[in-house]
């Protein structure tokens, strides 16, 4: 009887030890995940990046001519060249990380990437989530259509199907300024695509009538098509927007370092030469 009681007591103690161990591990993992979700929110990651000599930058690797893959699969583009030069001068190597563009701010603020750099436009909504670098390039939104569609103005999109990229600056502009284009299009809503190349395929197939996109993207993409003469670029009243780099709000050192490099590369004409290379301007 005594031995049976001893056994019960021992088993109870063991059970409690295991239970407390599980709770302790669970709390540890919870705190670890919480900390990961707060990377850079309060702490500046620039010292770590300088020490590791590597920075991870998120991009949509189909976004010509800012960051995309050439026929060999190599990442090329205006932003690829610019970021590489900026961090080369800072003694840091860039690791490019393709991401779901609709999740870009989440990827940044959870620490999966250190910056967003890929034709990333400064908007009031994005400013609530991230910190911006100084502007390094300006662009406007246009509608790309086929000449056979006879669309020569935004008003000609009346009742027509418009497409854009999910969570893009174009989509934000469309919704923020509905009287410019949104009021004309079918159902007053754009069809969203993950990437612009898929939208262009549907434009060519006649499944959509127009595509809202950065003018840089539009001109570069069209110039590299065999049927370039079939396309038309339609401009409206969308204002010029600023391309910036997105940082976590706590990364003030990283932000300052990049801004200083931008200032230097703008003053010595390097960025101007790069714009001529990629945009012909």
TrEMBL record:
<dbReference type="Pfam" id="PF00497">
    <property type="entry name" value="SBP_bac_3"/>
</dbReference>
<feature type="transmembrane region" description="Helical">
    <location>
        <begin position="9"/>
        <end position="29"/>
    </location>
</feature>
<feature type="domain" description="Solute-binding protein family 3/N-terminal">
    <location>
        <begin position="54"/>
        <end position="280"/>
    </location>
</feature>
<dbReference type="InterPro" id="IPR001638">
    <property type="entry name" value="Solute-binding_3/MltF_N"/>
</dbReference>
<keyword id="KW-0812">Transmembrane</keyword>
<protein>
    <submittedName>
        <fullName>Amino acid ABC transporter substrate-binding protein (PAAT family)</fullName>
    </submittedName>
</protein>
<keyword id="KW-0732">Signal</keyword>
<keyword id="KW-1133">Transmembrane helix</keyword>
<keyword id="KW-0472">Membrane</keyword>
């Amino acid at each position: 009887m005594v031995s049976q009681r001893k056994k019960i007591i021992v088993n109870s103690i063991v059970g409690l030890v295991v239970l407390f161990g599980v709770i302790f591990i669970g709390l540890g993992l919870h705190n670890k995940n919480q900390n990961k979700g707060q990377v850079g929110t309060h702490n500046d990651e620039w010292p770590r990046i300088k020490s590791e000599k590597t920075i991870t930058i998120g991009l949509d690797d189909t976004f010509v001519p800012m960051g995309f893959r050439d026929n060999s699969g190599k990442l090329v583009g205006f932003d690829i060249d610019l970021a590489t030069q900026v961090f080369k001068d800072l003694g840091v190597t860039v690791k490019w990380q393709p991401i779901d563009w609709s999740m870009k701010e989440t990827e940044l603020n959870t620490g999966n990437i250190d910056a967003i750099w890929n034709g990333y436009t400064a908007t009031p909504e994005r400013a609530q989530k991230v910190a911006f670098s100084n502007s390094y390039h300006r662009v406007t939104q246009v509608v790309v259509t086929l000449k056979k569609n006879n669309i020569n103005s935004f008003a000609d999109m009346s009742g027509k199907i418009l497409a854009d990229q999910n969570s893009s600056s174009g989509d934000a502009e469309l919704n923020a300024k509905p009287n410019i284009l949104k009021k004309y299009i079918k159902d007053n809503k754009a069809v969203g695509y993950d990437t612009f190349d898929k939208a262009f395929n549907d434009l060519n197939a006649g499944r959509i009538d127009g595509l809202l996109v950065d003018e840089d993207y539009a001109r570069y993409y069209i110039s590299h098509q065999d049927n370039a003469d079939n396309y038309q670029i339609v401009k409206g009243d969308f204002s010029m927007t600023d391309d910036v780099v997105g940082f976590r709000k706590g990364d003030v050192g990283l932000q300052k370092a990049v801004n200083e490099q931008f200032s230097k590369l703008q003053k010595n004409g390097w960025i101007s030469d790069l714009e001529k290379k990629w945009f012909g301007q």
